[in-house]
Amino acid sequence: MKSKILCPVDGSEGSLRAVRHAADMGARLIEVEVHLVNVQPPGDDWMVRRMIKAAELEKMEREWAETALAPARTILKERGVKFVEHFQQGEVAKTIARLAKELGCQQIVMGTRGMSALGDLLMGSVATKVLHQATVPVTLVK
Length: 142
What we know:
The structure is a single chain. By secondary structure, the protein is of the alpha/beta class. Helix 1 crosses helix 3 (54-78) and helix 4 (92-103) packs across helix 5. 48% of the residues lie in helices and 23% in strands. Strands 3-2-1-4-5 form a 5-stranded parallel beta sheet, with helices on both faces. Strand 1 (3-8), helix 1 (13-28) and strand 2 form a beta-alpha-beta unit. It has a single domain (3-141), classed as Rossmann fold (3-Layer(aba) Sandwich), CATH 3.40.50.
């Protein structure tokens, strides 16, 4: 049976530590597939819609996702771990929990803090929300 791990990435060092942890797990398991996901929050604020065309916003979000996914992709390729990439848009924690369920992932591995102005002051709000919303085990990597 193939083991699936969902690994949200936002380009932060914390999310890359989580990818390394997932890669280490993948190296020890016979069949594992890591699902990398970058979730962009919805850009539906009226000011955003007024200033940026929908196609331009989508292009920017895909570029941001690519920037976040690139280092994670490199880590998994170097370690020979199979992976699939996903780009999603929506409320971040809810989208991560939903995607894990839809993909049939056995667990979520993620960093405790992402790109946040609060930095190291507290465990990230996204991680906290994922813990409460996910229906599979969540491993938080410091």
